[in-house]
Each structure stands twice: as C-alpha cells, then as structure tokens.
Amino acid sequence: MTRDRRVTPGATYRVQLHPGFNFDDAAGIVEYLARLGITHLYCSPVLQAAPGSSHGYDVVDPTRLNEELGGSEGFDRLTAEAAAHGIGLIVDIVPNHMAIGVRSNPWWWDVLKHGPTSRYARCFDIDWDPPEAVLKRMILVPILGDHYGRVVKNGDLQLTPDEAEGVVVRYFDHELPLAPGSLDIPFEDANADHDALHGVLQRQHYRLAYWRAGDHDLNYRRFFDIKTLAGVRVEDPAVFEESHRVVLELARAGKIAGLRIDHIDGLRNPGGYLETLRERAADAYIVVEKILEGDESLPEDWPVEGTSGYDFLSWSTSFLVDPAGENPLTQTYESFTGATSGLAEQAFESKRFIVAEVLASDLERLTEAFVAVCERHPDYRDYTRSEVRAMLAVLAAAWPVYRTYVRSGSVLPAAKAVVAHAIHHALSMERSVDERLLEFAGEVIVLEHAGDAEERFVARWQQSTGPVMAKGVEDTVFYRYNRFVALNDVGCDPGSFGMTVDELHARAERALGAYPHSMCATSTHDTKRSEDVRARLSLLAQMPDQWADAVRRWGEMTATHKRDGWPERNLEYLFFQTIVGAWPLPADRAVPYMLKAAREAKVETSWTQPNERYESILQDYVNGALEDAGFTADVERFVRPLIEPGYIASMTMTLLKVMWPGVPDFYQGTEAWDLSLVDPDNRRPVDYEARRALLAQSATADAGTAWAARASGLAKLWLIQRALSLRHARVRPNAPYRPLRVRDDPAGRIAAFTRGDDIAVVVQRPSPDGSYGDQAVVLPPGGWIDELTRAQHEGGPTPVHDLFRGFPAALLAQPHSP
Q1: Which residues, in sequence order, are bridge partners of residue 142?
Q2: Which three-class secondary structure state does DSSP give residue 227?
Q3: Is 367 helix (H, G, I), strand (E, B) or coil?
Q4: What was the pLDDT predicted at 110?
Q5: pLDDT band at 172 (very low <50, low <70, confident <90, very high)
Q6: Fewer C-beta neighbours within 10 Å, C or N terminus of the chain?
C-alpha cells in the first residue's frame, strides 16, 4: 500500500499501562481525549510482561496480550471504545529483548531446561561456544548473592517439589528447571548433601554464579546492562513470525493503526527488520525510537514515518535557550563545582568506563569476534587479545553516534564519516592506542574487508555501540556534567548551547522534506525532566548574574546540612537547578530523585555498589535543606518571577509542536502543567478528573479567561485544544513551512512561520522580565484573525506586542473565501 493510503495520526497521546492503569482505565479517558483533539491513543507495550511490570518493556510472552492489563477481552473493550470515538491505537513493541528473570517466560524456561536443543534456543542471542570452556553449551545465570560454593554450603540453593515440573531449583524468589534425567537421587537426599546437590547442578544447561560474574562472563546479549533482559534474534524469520504474530494479527484486524518500535538500534539488522515489518503491516503508521546526534539523519531506505520525537524535543528546548548565556553559566558552574573537564572529555571517559566495566561481557564477545578477524589477516594476527580489547574499548568510547547501519552491499557515506571521526577522536584522547590496529578496525567496520568473520564482527559491533552511548552519556554524563541541565535530556546535546531562529527554521524545513509524518514529542516516559521543568530552567540562560548570586547564597545556606564534604559541589549544583525547575518540590520526590541522580552519576555511589553512608548523608542534606525555612524562602523568592515566563516558554513549545511538520505527541498529563522529573516521578498517577474539569472550562473560555486562570493549567490545555482544532481543519501534514521575517529582533527571540498559505504562527523565547522590544513580524498580505484572541491584523509589519496582547502566542488564520 502506498504512503498516501496510510492514515497519518493528527495527534497522539501516550499512556503508560500497568496493573494500576489497565486497558479499561485507558478506555475511560478515550472520550476526554477525543474532545481534547487527540486522534490516536499511543500505548506502552501491551503484550504479556513480567508480573507487576510498571512499564511493559519486560515482555515474557509475545504470543498473548497482558493479562494484568485485562487480556484480550480488556483490549477489545479498549479498541471498541476508541473506535466509537474515532480514535485509533498505536502500540509500542519490543523486538529487541525479553525478560528472563522470571518463570513466566516459557521460551527462556525451555532453553534453561533443554539447553541448545530447545526449540526456543534459536530465539535468543546466546553464545553456546564462548571462550570460557566451562560455559560451552551452557548459559551463565548470575543471580547468586555470594559465591556459588558458599551459597550451596549455606543451604540457600534447594531442590523443591513443583506441581508442573516435579522438582525445580529454588534460590529465594528464583526458580529454575532441571534438565530431563539430571536428578538421579531423591531430591531430599541432594538437599542434605552439598556434594550431591553440586553434582545435580553441574548436569544442568546453566551455570549458577555470583551476580557480579555476569559483568564479565555473561554469554548472552542483553538489553544495555540489564541481565534479566535477554536479546532476541528477531533477524531469524521464524523468530520474527512467532514474536510478532499477535501484533500483526491486531494490525490486520484493524485494532491497531500504528507501531512504535522500541530500541531499533539493538537489532542486528534494523533496515532488514523494518522492511519485513512493512511488508507484513503495510497499512501501519510506523515510527522508531531513535536518538539522532547533531546533523545525523535516519537511513533514507528505512520504510518508516520517522522517529518517536526526541529530535523535536531537542530543537524546541534549544530554541528557548539564549546562546548568550553559555559563557557566564559555564563560569558559574566551573567556579562553584571546581569542574575542570568539559563535556567531550567526560563523555569519552564515561563511555570507556561503561564498555570496560559495566558492559565488560559485551566487550569480551567483541574482542573474540575481532581476534577471529585478525587471524584471517597476516598483518594483524600477532596482536594480543589484550591489545585488541583495549583498542575496541577506546574506539567505542570515541564513537560519536549510537550506531551505524552497515550491511552487506550497503555502506552509506555517513558510516565512513562516523568511522573517520571516531578514529581521530580516539587518537586525540588516548595516544597509547595502536593506530594501525585502530585504522584496521575502521576498515572492517565499513566492510572494506570481506568475509563471514568480518560481517559477524560488524553486526556485533553495531549492536554494542548503542548501549555504550546510552549508558555512558544518557545514564552517566547527563548526571555528571551539570552545567545547564535544561539541555541534559534524551535527544539533546548539553554541549550545544541554544539554537538561533534561523537554525530552528532550517530544522523544520528539513523535517518537512525528509519525514513529514514523524512524531514530535516534548515529554516522554524516558525524559529526565518534563517540558515544563525544562521551559522554566531555560530562563536561567538570560539571567546568569542572578543565578550565580543565588548559587553562592544557597551553597552557604545549605552548608550546615553537609557532612564530611558530602554531597559534592557538582551534585549540589544539580540539586539547586532541580528545585528551581520543579518548585515546589516536596522531599518525598526530591530525595528519591537525588539518590537516583547520584547512583546514575557513579561517582560516590552507584546501583551496583551503593555507598550507604554517602546516600544517608545525601538524604539528610536534601531533607535538611527543604526543612530550612530560610533556604526555602529564598528559593521561593527566586522562583516566583520565573513562573509566568516559564508558562510562556511552555506555550511556545506547545504551539510549535502542534504546528510543526509532523505528528504532535502528548505525554500523559502534560496537557496541563506538569513539573515531573525522571521516572518513576514522571509515571505518577494522572488526575484526569481535574483535567476533565479544565476541558469543560475550556469549552467556554476565551483567551483572556484562559490566561487569567493560567496557574490551574487551563491556559495550556485551552491552547492545545484550540490549536489542534485548527490543525485538523486547516493544515495538511505536508503543508509548506515558510519562515516569516521579523524586524528589529537582534537577539532572535521571535520565531514566526506559515503552514500552507493561510495559517501563521508566532512564538517567543520569553524574557524573565516579560518585556518586548520593537520587534515586528512581517505577515503575508491579506487579513488575518488570531484564532486565540480573535484579534484582527492586516498583512505587513505587525508589532509583536500587538500580536501577544491577550495571549503570549499567536495562531493566525486568513478567513476562508465564501
């Protein structure tokens, strides 16, 4: 089916499904969403996930709908209710991995039971013949809290009766099957004799191990560093069919209209996967979860509508940031924290740490694969395994994008540019790396040397660089490099400070030409802070002196709550930005956030090696600061003048999103003000009763009424409803985007453009003092009516203060001809 015959969503609304908000709960908000102007409900994964899953990405059985969400009957009720209100469904799917830490995954259970002879062995990316001889034809299962021998002697491993299996291995909450015929004595006798129990366990298709052993010895591909999420070999046609059967049946039946593909970069062959998916779901609207770095683009041959929207999130946030604030804010950050290394240095070191330590087992598999390549080339066969490992770690740390998309017969110029950049960066950061070996690796990665061993290494390499980037940058540097955290978010570049109006227009024109149906998001379930938090924080770039004074004051005021120099200055600086962006922020949200931030930063504590003393001091510090009346009063005085311009900045992001080339996406609850931080804070229950009340007010409100009630969130919801209504009625998805000239705007605060010939949009980068200069937007000829304020304007230079009289954004339309 051609692109023109696929339905393009007008606006999507993302919900996080879990046992506390199931299919019926989602059905309960459909009528509200339809009145808001949403055309498609966009759901987190709906297939059977691990028991109690709060997100659905830990799928255990892709052949059935999640029973905890209501199963197939509940899903049918949801689709029926959605159809009754003209709303389609888009669902998130997880082709890359499955959850294996629970018995409820029948595929993994069968593999543990039967080993490489299991009918499901081909489903998982398992190395059955790893370098470690003890793991040949076995799976490492690193779940033990201590070394294996001690656990056996302590009696924590037991054989227990089981109704379905007869006898299973139990370790606290973990259960594992026994291989057929492997228990040759009564299980009670085995439990009573350590040697006998050890003998039974030695006959299994898995090797139980201390949990830390998994970091270096794991012999299956996982999702990032999560050992309980195993990589799926979806490139195998039989595995694709079995794992996608239910989703494709729903698509053919018309119950779902679109798919969002999670972690596309984890697949062995993303392009081939998408081609197969498009063949099987020709009518579906398909977007991929993909972070694009800098000027990076999606591969042109991918048969998709675009991304899930992180690129727009970056652009819209960057426009709100005044580039003139970079130098003074950098000076304040470095002066307060003592930071001496920049973003590039921190990113390189963090990624090298991640690949060498956190993802060490992946590095070992890469090393083995590249050693096999070297063996085929006499000039390189004498390099030691240690030299190869060190070179690959440096190259991965220097890699500038999440991954390349090289496959046999298809090496894009962009891939060669990435390799050249990475080699140059690697040599500049680590002079001890062998240049000849590094350049040879680069040649192999772009398939300048043919062979099965080379292609196996390239496939493995491309699946590995994404996790290094994600864990090293998103989940480490974004909590270490705290210069200006409005830019420390998914899809953003903390090193690129702000965006000019011309750059914003260029991005829009490029988006329209390449992927006019891509999603445009401003908040997601993965963002580090909500759009409203980022909008308020963006104002600090225009008030660097006031910010510097506040940081100095707050550092002195909270010093009494520190102990032994903890928390460190860098984390204090993050805390101060966090409370400004999310104020008022109660301790029951601030403490968990700061603990998570400290663990993600991996400086004084981490998830795998928690420093209990440090974390106790950090918790006391946050509680003490938020109980300090003098400190909180000072924060309140600082934040109060930022609230209204923060609202305006959010209005700018919202209207840009609705009228931008692409599909506007709204994350649950963000249609009103939402000052959420990273998950789980951004997955708190949404008060839909309050939002329904706002929607009822919106029906009769005008611009003045909506803006007067802005603190309630009415202004934002009102703008969304009005703008979506106009978009649906008057703006075609591929309507031309044309920048409008703005006079007397040297700071580049005003962005104005048309969509088509008769719709014009004017938005602003607000200033903290709320002032306007003599800027004027040159409107095209003819009469214009502001759909928000109902004010009338004539074509030609129109003062910005006239356009924003009554509402801080303008959405203009020329009357239809009779």
Answers
A1: 209
A2: strand
A3: helix
A4: 98
A5: very high
A6: C
Token pair, residue 575, equals 């805390």
Residue 1 has a pLDDT of 35
3-state secondary structure of 737: strand
Identify the band that residue 5 occupies on the pLDDT scale cut at 50, 70 and 90: low
What's the farthest any 2 CA atoms get from each other in the chain?
93
Tens digit of each residue's pLDDT (9 = 90 or more) over 689-721: 999 999 999 999 999 999 999 999 999 999 999
With b for 16 or more beta-carbon neighbours within 10 A and e for fewer, the 97-127 pattern comes to bbbbbbbebebbbbbbbbbeebebbebbbbb
Q: What is the 3-state secondary structure (H, E, C) of 703-753?
A: HHHHHHCHHHCHHHHHHHHHHHHHHHHHCCCCCCEEECCEECCCCCCEEEE
* Entry field: residues in the chain: 818
pLDDT digits (tens, 9 = 90+) for 556-594: 999 999 999 999 999 999 999 999 999 999 999 999 999
Per-residue pLDDT at 55 exceeds 80: yes
Q: Which residue has the tokens 């966009």?
A: 42
pLDDT of amino acid 770? 84
Q: Tokens 């400070």 — which residue? A: 497
Which two three-digit tokens encode residue 591? 């403490």
Here the tokens at position 15 are 């919900």
Q: Report the pLDDT averaged over residues 96-122.
A: 96
Distance set, CA 809 to CA 145, 721, 723, 812 (Å)? 57, 14, 11, 10
Cβ-based neighbours of 625, under 8 Å, separated by 6 or more: 558, 561, 575, 631, 632
Distance CA 571, CA 172 (A): 37
The amino acid present at 680, given as its one-letter code, is P
Distance between CA 242 and CA 237 in Å, rounded?
Answer: 9
Query: At a CB cut-off of 8 Å and minimum separation 6, what does 502 contact?
Result: 739, 748
Q: If you average pLDDT over residues 401-423, what whole number do you get?
A: 91
* 8 Å CB contact between 491 and 314: yes
Tokens read off for 477: 């540097």
**Angle at CA of residue 309, ends 814 and 417, nearest 5°:** 115
CA distances from 411 to 299, 436, 598, 643, 648 (A): 11, 22, 40, 50, 45
Confidence check: pLDDT of 423 > 50: yes
Instruction: Evaluate if residue 8 carries a pLDDT over 80.
Output: yes
- Gap between the Cα atoms of 613 and 590, Å rounded: 18
Q: Residue ranges of the alpha helices (H) in 357-451? A: 360-375, 385-398, 413-429, 435-445
Give me 809's structure tokens: 């954004």
Residue 487 sits at the vertex; the CA angle it makes with 558 and 333, to the nearest 5 degrees, is 40
Asked whether 308 and 489 are in contact (CB, 8 A), the reply is: no
C-alpha dihedral (790, 794, 800, 802), degrees to nearest 10: -50
With tokens 């190395």, the residue in question is 127
Does residue 313 surpass a pLDDT of 50? yes
Q: CA dihedral defined by 749, 755, 760, 766, rounded to 10 degrees?
A: -20
Q: Are 215 and 361 in contact (CB under 8 A)?
A: yes
Strand-pair partners of 12 = 40, 665
Nearest to 138 by CA among 119, 157, 120, 112: 112
Phi, psi of 220 (to 5 degrees): -135, 150
**Contact predicate 493/314, CB 8 Å:** yes
pLDDT for 197 equals: 97
Assess whether pLDDT exceeds 90 at residue 446: yes
- Given a cut of 80, whether residue 85 has pLDDT beyond it is yes
The residue behind tokens 């390499």 is 461
At 484, give phi and psi (nearest 5°).
-155, 95
| Identity of the residue numbered 345 | E
Residues 416 and 394 sit within 8 Å (Cβ to Cβ)? no
329-382 per-position pLDDT tens digit: 999 999 999 999 999 999 999 999 999 999 999 999 999 999 999 999 999 999
Angstrom distance (rounded) from CA 259 to CA 495: 32
Query: What contacts 24+ positions apart, CB below 8 Å, involve 626-634?
Result: 626/579, 626/585, 626/586, 626/587, 626/590, 627/587, 628/557, 628/558, 628/561, 630/557, 631/554, 631/557, 631/558, 634/550, 634/553, 634/554, 634/557
